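Deliverable D4.2, example record:
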Amino acid sequence: MTTNLLEFDLDGLAAFCEQLGEKRFRATQLFRWIHQRGASQFDAMSDLAKALRDKLKGCARVEALPVISEHISSDGTVKWLFDVGDGNAVEAVFIPEEDRGTLCISSQAGCAVGCRFCSTGHQGFSRNLTTGEIIAQLWFAEHSLRKRFNSEERVISNVVMMGMGEPLQNYTALVPALRAMLDDHGYGLSRRRVTVSTSGVVPMMDRLSLDCPVALAVSLHAPNDLLRDNLVPLNRKYPIHELLDACNRYLAHAPRDFITFEYCMLDGVNDQLEHAQQLIELVRPARGAGVRCKFNLIPFNPFPASGLLRSPQNQVLAFAKVLSDAGIVTTVRKTRGDDIDAACGQLAGDVKDRTRAAERMAKQRTIVLKPVT
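Output generated by the structure prediction step:
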C-alpha cells in the first residue's frame, strides 16, 4: 500500500523522506511541488533526482478525494461533494468575493455535536477525516480553480474550518492540516486568514492556542445556559462561563485580538432584544466575565427536520443595533450559495447515522424553546 503524501505537513514529509534516505531539502522541494504547484505525478517534479522519483513511485502517491458532484450558485459560490468511502461524503464550499476567496472545509463525515439548527448534525456522525482528507479539499479546490480561472496566482486566500463536523473533536488530524495551510512552502496562508470554528470544546481550545494558534470562531447562539443547553448540547459539558474563560485564555496567543462569536438567528427563540442585552452583559468586562469579541449574526437556513424558522430581517437588524450601540462590533452574514444548499448550516453530504441523531433530534423537536429574559 502506497502512502498518500497529502497526509503530511512539512515535518511529517521530512520524516517520510528520511526513511527513504533523503535529506530535508528534498522534502521541501516535494512539498512545494505538491501544494504550491498542484503536481500529482512524480515525473513532473523535474528538480527531484530521478532516483528519488523512482523511489516515490514505488511507495507514495498524491491522491485527491473523488468528486461526486459540483454545483455552482448564481452568486459564484461553488460546492463540491467528495467521496470519503464506506458510503460517506463530505462537502467543501468556495465563496468568491472582491477582496478574497474563502474555502469552507469539512473535518468530519457528519457531526456528533447535534446542534438543533444545523442540518449536518441531524445527519449523525460517521467518522473523523484524516489529515490528507482535510487538506485534499484545499488541494483540489485551489488547483482546480486556478485552471478554471486561468490563473497562476493563489485563488484561495482564506480557509474556514466551518464545514461538516466539529474540528476540535478531530484534533490530531486537524493540526497537521493547519500547519500545511500556513507553511510558506505550502499554501502560505496567514494565521489571521485561517479560522477554526468550534461549538466550544474547551480543553482543545487551550491546546490549539499552544500548538497552532489561528483565528477562532465560537458558535455561541444563545446568551444563557438554559437556552444554549437546548441549541448546542455541548454546553451541558462546557457551560458558557467556562467557554468565555477559555476564549480569554486563547486571546493571549491568538493572531487576532478578538474572538468571533457566531450567532444563528432563530425566530422567536434567541432573537429577542432581551437576548441581545444578555449578550452585552456576558461580554462586557465591566459587567460579566468579559471577552474582546465581535458578533457575526447568521440568518438561519431552514430545513424541514429542524422545526425552526429564520428571524425576520427587521428583527435581525434591531438585534444588531442593540449590540452595536453597546460598542460591540457586529456584522450580519450575507447568505451565499443557498440555492445550492451551500449556505451556513446546510452542509449535510451523505452520512451514515451511527449516533442515532434522527431519533435524538425528533425528541428535541418536542421541546418548546421560548425567549428567556
